[in-house]
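In this supplementary section we document a worked example of the pipeline. Step one takes a protein sequence of length 316 as its only input; no multiple sequence alignment statistics are reported here. Step two produces a three-dimensional model, which step three serialises into structure tokens for compact storage. The input and output of this example are shown verbatim.
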Amino acid sequence: MKRALLIGLTLLCCAITDGQRIMWWNVENLFDCKDDPLRNDEEFLPEGNHHWTLGRYWHKMDNIARVAAAVADEKGWPALIGIGEVENDSCLFDLVRRSPLRTAGYEFIVTNGPDVRGVDVGLLYQPKQFFLEGYEGLRVPSAEEGLRPTRDILHAWGRLPSGDLMHVFAVHFPSKAGSGREGNRNRSLAAQTLRAAVERFRGEKILVMGDFNAEPSDIIFSEIMGKDAPLVSLMPLSRRELRKNRGTYVFQKQWGFLDHVLVSKELMPCVEGKVQVARFNFLLDEDGAPWRTYRGPIYQGGYSDHLPIWVDLSAK
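The serialised model returned by step three reads:
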């Protein structure tokens, strides 16, 4: 019954309106139930510590579809949905072809990076709203520097309905949790890799979205946006705004913005309003924090440890 209701909900959101809604979400550990001998995915197997079963896998798929439908609202399906922490292309195939989200008609691309856990970055796109011309995975040289390998940066380029070319970068930077200087150095390498890639397309429409594992005041944003860089942040920067918006992630009961959207100055005139955080009630637990799939090893059936964000672009 629940699955049928979800499908009905998605059908209500299929209309395409002027402009595009762009969404990003770290969905937290979207693993399949199969062992990959080249990756450390043992926790998310039926016999693993998390007892990750097909039933739980498909429940998470339903949850992701529900959130996408809620973000769609009256604007129609997001033209682009960046997704963090997805294990492989089979997970995204199941999401766009076999979950309730199949009614939306998404296509997808995904990186294949060296992260030891095997999580990658993906992008769902509406073919009638983003005409994909190509994509690539950009390797962050972490291993070469003796650091823990991290996710590739996903770079896709395509045409908007207006005919304009737009470059999209989806990122999931290394975590700072428990890693100290190594984590800072690794995020700096990711920032330098992103900055170098963006510089190749200076003067064009560029959108960067993702989980940067860093607050807006973090030094890595100086590396990405400083010294006449072609990007500007759409995230709240003042303390008053940060308190008002609360954030996308909670650590030790403290909210923070780890997820961001950056755009080039050429794309800025198309941006409508501010970046929105999806604070839907069903995404929050009894403490008002993001309702996670697991709390430690205990299965809760929630959504993610991050809240989704989105921004609207006009049809200019």
